From TrEMBL:
Gene3D superfamilies assigned: Aspartate Aminotransferase, domain 1, Type I PLP-dependent aspartate aminotransferase-like (Major domain)
Pfam families, A to Z: DegT_DnrJ_EryC1
Upper taxonomic lineage: Bacteria, Candidatus Gottesmaniibacteriota
UniProt keywords, alphabetically: Aminotransferase, Pyridoxal phosphate, Transferase
GO molecular function ontology, one term from the record: pyridoxal phosphate binding
Keyword Repeat: no
Protein's name according to its UniProt entry: DegT/DnrJ/EryC1/StrS aminotransferase family enzyme
GO biological process: polysaccharide biosynthetic process
Signal peptide: none
UniProt cofactor(s): pyridoxal 5'-phosphate
SUPFAM superfamilies: PLP-dependent transferases
Family: Belongs to the DegT/DnrJ/EryC1 family.
Key word Calcium present: no
Length: 434
């Protein structure tokens, strides 16, 4: 890029995005947001000037760096975390997996509380989601509840590390091995979280990530699926790229060196491999501009992880004094979460309701969120739907939905915001402390 253009982009960044000054009570405290500098603008513009635009060398660069980071062999970029989940589950329906291939009617164990697109691919593939309750402290499904959900029809476990909090992975892996189950880790909220000192995502047969701005790093929109299994990788690419059998990168031809040498299905011999379809696929690729921005964000990940962990710790320490009012989050032994948010669940019998405190905080410009959809089964889309199984009464999911909310810990929150958050909570709670 020409030096003058570089300088003018840097200047643009300085003018348009001056360092924010925090004014307590006036400046909003969001739950999440993009944190970036001129590097993201420079990389994004470089990808535009490159003139390629669809998935290209920036995407390849990101995939390589992400594989190195996670220690997994294959990375497939997609246009969202939801797309990542969709192709992750769909890939397991590929015929190459023989008896283990997912088919309509097979059961997939998932958690009742969370984000809908962790669950939707199960329904979209004609499989049966089996919903288990979430724990009030970890907000994850427990090992006991997962064990209870296993039946002869169970083929997979697909669930999120809720709010970045690692699942009981060791136990899940044992179950997966014992019952020959696939394990898909939804790490959309958990990039940077560790379990036994390894990044989450490196444990399951597949793992998914989201790069929407709320997440640990962003591309605007974007996602990824990772796996070390070459057959899964091939199926992922097929589902992502229109269902085609051909594995050429975008813009490349004849990687297999026999483009006109295949005979598949009932097609004429030598039919162009580029247009042979072995899956009912989609097009879920991203653009090189997104990948370029992602590359700059990836460099900032260690700093972002530390900031989230420090913010979480400071809030945890603060809320110890209010334990009588709130259930705070706990994590598995040997895990080190990179938290997505700081969640509080109001205890039964507390002298205020979720709406009382959430309205108060929002009035003070401190943003709050529910644990996404809460108990998904209560939503119009899932209510009374057939082809689903539920384990138990989902009492915790209902409680989290009724009495839970979370506030931000993202790197845009620093000491001044934390002090303000703490002061507002103290002001609200003081009158109830006797
Ligand atoms: C656990 C989980 N899975 C999947 C998604 C979907 O990601 P995206 O918004 O990129 O589609 C989200 C979104 O925040 C999420 O929290």
């Amino acid at each position: 890029m020409d030096r003058r253009l570089r300088e003018s982009i840097k200047q643009h960044f300085k003018n348009k995005f001056p360092p924010p000054k925090f004014k307590p009570g006036i400046t909003p405290v969001p739950v999440s947001g993009k944190v970036f500098d001129e590097q993201e603008l420079l990389k994004g513009v470089a990808a535009v000037l490159d003139g390629w635009w669809t998935e290209g060398h920036f995407a390849q660069g990101f995939e390589k760096a992400f594989a190195k980071l996670t220690g997994v062999r294959y990375v497939t970029l997609v246009n969202s975390g939801s797309s990542a989940n969709l192709i992750a589950l769909s890939s397991l329906t590929a015929k190459v997996f023989g008896e283990r291939a997912l088919k309509a009617g097979d059961e997939v164990i998932t958690a009742a509380t969370g984000f809908p697109t962790t669950v939707n691919p199960i329904l979209q593939n004609g499989c049966v989601p089996v919903f288990v309750d979430n724990d009030l402290e970890t907000k994850n499904a427990t090992l006991t509840s997962i064990k209870k959900a296993i039946s002869v029809k169970t083929k997979a476990i697909m669930m999120a590390h809720t709010l970045g909090n690692p699942l009981p992975i060791a136990g899940i892996l044992e179950l997966a091995q014992k019952y020959k189950l696939w394990f898909i880790e939804d790490c959309c909220d958990a990039l940077g979280s560790r379990y036994k000192n390894k990044l989450v995502g490196a444990f399951g047969h597949l793992a998914t990530f989201s790069f929407y701005p709320a997440h640990q790093i962003t591309m605007g929109e974007g996602g990824a699926v990772i796996t070390s299994n070459p057959l899964i990788f091939r199926a992922l690419r097929q589902f992502r790229d229109w269902g085609r059998d051909c594995w050429c990168d975008t813009g490349k031809d004849n990687t297999c060196r026999r483009r006109f040498g295949w005979q598949m299905g009932e097609l004429p011999a030598g039919y162009d491999h580029k247009y042979i379809y072995s899956q009912i696929g989609y097009n879920l690729k991203l653009t090189d501009m997104q990948a370029a921005i992602g590359l700059s964000q990836l460099r900032k990940l260690p700093r972002f992880v530390k900031a989230r962990q420090n913010n979480f710790k400071e809030l945890s320490d603060f809320f110890e004094q209010y334990e009588r009012f709130f259930i705070c989050s706990k994590s598995e032994p040997e895990s080190k979460p990179c938290w997505f948010g700081f969640m509080l669940v109001i205890r039964d019998g507390a002298p205020f309701t979720r709406l009382d405190i959430v309205n108060y905080l929002e009035d003070k410009h401190i943003a709050t969120r529910s644990l996404f959809g809460g108990n998904l089964l209560r939503h119009p889309a899932y209510l009374k739907r057939s082809g689903m199984r539920v384990i138990g009464q989902l009492m915790n999911s209902d409680k989290i939905m009724r009495d839970g909310f979370w506030i931000g810990v993202y790197p845009g929150i620093g000491k001044p915001q934390l002090s303000y958050i703490k002061k507002c909570f103290s002001d609200f709670l003081e009158k109830f402390v006797t």
